[in-house]
Amino acid sequence: MNHKLASAACAIAVIAWADAAIAEPFALTGHDDGQWRYVFTPYAFIPAGTTGTSTIDGTSVDLDLSLDEALDALNLAFSGRFEAWRGDWGLLFDGNYVSLGGDESIGLPGPGGGSLDVEVDIEQYWLTFMAAYRAVDTTYGDAGRRFALDLQGGLRYNSLKQEVDIDTPGPATKLGGTETWWEPVIGARGVWELNDNWAAAIVADFGGFGVGGDDLQVIATAGFDWRPERWTNTSIKFGYRYYSLDFETDDGDFAYDVSQHGPYLGVTFRWQ
Fold it and tell me: Sign of the CA dihedral 82, 223, 135, 207?
C-alpha cells in the first residue's frame, strides 16, 4: 500500500518541477546609450514527457508520465522572468509557482470492507537571482546580423511541499513534508538575429553542484523570438526545452532523479 501511495504522490510532485522554466531568450535591443532597459516575460513550459525515479519516506518508484497525466494533476501554475540591463551588465529575476493536488478512494480487501481516502497536496516555488554580462556583441554574415552571448551566474531558492494525507477507519496518517534549499546557478545564452522580426536563441543553465542536496539541475532551451510587423516592443517566444533534476536529502528518504522535455511558450514586453 505504501508503494501505491508514494507512486501517486511522486507522480504529481514531479510535475511541479516541469514548470521550472528559466532563461527565456533576451531580444537584441542594441541600446548603448547608458539607459536602463527592461524586459518581462510570462511563460509556460509543458512537459510532454517525464521519466526518472522519485522517493518519498524511503519508498522509491519509477516515473513515466505522459502529457495528459501531467495536466490532470495541475491546479494552478504561473511563472515569469524579469531582466534589467544597462550597457553590457544585467540583473535577472526568475520566479515560478505551482499548486497541484488530487484525491482518491481506495477500497480495502477483506470482509470488513471500508476504504482509504488519499489526498495529495503539492505546492512548489523557486526564485532565481542572477547577474549577467554580455561577453560578445558582434555581427555575422553578409547582411551584418547581430549575435550576442550572455554569461550568467547567481543563486536559486527552492521550496517543495509534498504531503499525502491518508484517512482510514483508524488513525489518520500523513506522509512527506517540505524541503527547501539554496543552490548556485551558472548559465549562458546565445542569440542570433535572423532578420528584422526573428531571432533564434540557445540557452543552457546549470545549478546545484551538490549544494543543498541537489547534485545537478540542468535546463537547456532552443527557440525563437518573433516580433510581428506592427508590434514595437512585444514579441512571442516559443521553442523546446529539456529539464533534469537530481536531488536527495541526507537520509535518502526524499529524492528526485527525473528528466523532462517539452515545448515552451511566452510573451515578452520591453521598455526603457
Answer: positive
Kindly list the structural domains of the chain, giving each domain's residue range(s) and its CATH number in brackets, ordered by start: 2-271 (2.40.128)
Mean pLDDT, residues 192-215 taken together: 93
Per-residue pLDDT averaged across 202-227, rounded?
Answer: 92
What does the block give as the cell for 166?
Answer: 491518508
Mean pLDDT for the chain?
81
Q: What is the pLDDT of residue 189?
A: 95
CA–CA distance, 121 with 84 (Å, rounded to integer)? 35
Q: In whole angstroms, what is the distance from residue 190 CA to residue 202 CA? A: 5
Higher pLDDT, 91 or 64: 91
Question: What is the mean pLDDT of the segment spanning 122-136?
Answer: 89
Question: 147-160 pLDDT, tens per residue?
Answer: 999 999 999 998 87
Looking at residue 77, its amino acid is A
Residue with the three cell numbers 488530487: 102
Three-state secondary structure string covering the chain: CHHHHHHHHHHHHHHHHHCCCCCCCCCCCCCCCCCCEEEEEEEEECCCEEEEEEEECCEEEEEEEEHHHHHHCEEEEEEEEEEEEECCEEEEEEEEEEEEEEEEEEECCCCCCCEEEEEEEEEEEEEEEEEEEEEEEEEECCCCEEEEEEEEEEEEEEEEEEEEEEECCCCCEEEEEEEEEEEEEEEEEEEEECCCCEEEEEEEEEEEEEECCEEEEEEEEEEEEECCCCCCCEEEEEEEEEEEEEEECCCCCCEEEEEEEEEEEEEEEEEC
Distance CA 183, CA 171 (A): 38
pTM for the model stands at: 0.81
CA-to-CA distance for 265 and 214, rounded, in angstroms?
27
